[in-house]
Amino acid sequence: MMEAPLEDETHAGALAGIEGSDHGEVLKASEEAIAFMSSIDPAELQKCVFPDSLVTVSEGGRELGKFNVTVEFARRVQQPCLLLHAQSQGAIDDSPCGTTVTAYLTTELEVLEEDYHEYVKLEGHSLDKRCHMVQRDGQMVIDKVTTVGEEVTKESFSYPMSVLRGLVTEGANVLLMRLIVLRKKMPEHMTFISFDQGLQIIQTTFRELGLMQLEVGDETVEVFGVERTVHSVEDSPSTWQCYFLADGHLASRVQVGSPVTMRLLQLPSQLEKGFEKIPLVWEEDMQMRSKFLDRKEELKADHASYLRQHPEIRALISDFLQFLLLRKPDDVFQFARDYFLPFASRHPPEPSLKAP
Q1: What is the 3-state secondary structure (H, E, C) of 221-251?
Q2: What's the half-sphere exposure (Cβ side, CA atoms, 13 Å) at 261?
Q3: How far is the CA of 56 from the CAs of 65, 100, 135, in angstroms?
Q4: Which of 172, 48, 46 has its CA nearest to residue 101?
Q5: Is 200 in contact with 158 (CB distance < 8 Å)?
Q6: CA neighbor of 283 nearest in space, from 112, 100, 76, 114
Q7: pLDDT tens-digit profile of 149-202?
Q8: What is the pLDDT of residues 28-69, one digit of tens each?
């Protein structure tokens, strides 16, 4: 088990990610990419606030899982932002696996906070990865916990925001591609920066695939393609090809070389007629968990206030428990009924429900 690294180790890791090559040059996003993010209009984002729901299928057409995305306007620490929640659940060789991303993003798709969770449950063995990043005091602070079986590895990194211009994370990536599709064009040299599995800074590029025909349900529709390639310091690049409807809804997503494809089974207009409610795992949703904790504290304060106003409650319960433990009756419910029965005489009798 590796404990969280010391400050100098964290700094060294951050520098490794910033340098990102044998020559030590700083990896940066292209001017075109930064200009694209700076040009985002809030009115454009309004058109991106909708859910997506796809199924994951094998080459033979077998359904393996589901992929769902929700986007809504929210507030984080009184700052207006976008809240994105994406969840993929399924099975690989009958082994449960899934990925969940929850991100708070500014109107320029800058990450305020993001939580990434990935897991694979194998028989007698499991893999769980959690990565949390948050802006704090001009830094992007990242904590990663990897659990393999019983072994837990913790890593912490910190990057100055000044070197993260043009950063696109898993959460921001979804909205970025929706915007590209809605504009129906993409500038050349769209190179952003991102993080690899080792939390080092890498480059990720986007290019236009053009228009094609795709079958969705019983219809053939025109879709617009966007290809995303994520480079790596040590491994080969990974490439995804995504096709979208004209309104920005995702119609197909596949990683090049993978036998698995995410597909839209019905057009959004058809889904609205018989919308299937997506189950929400509130524990993994930062906004829902925050609301739960706020409500929990509110109830605790309300209950404590009531108890202060009615000290007789504590005395009553204390006397009952003391009497109960002294007698130790076999039928606790009957004992409680007999104990509290005299208190009923202190209240006027309830009106009879029988007809006169």
Answers
A1: EEEEEEEEEECCCCCCCEEEEEEECCCCCEE
A2: 14
A3: 5, 15, 33
A4: 172
A5: no
A6: 100
A7: 889 999 999 999 999 999 999 999 999 999 999 998 888 899 999 998 888 899
A8: 999 999 999 999 988 889 999 999 999 999 888 888 899 999
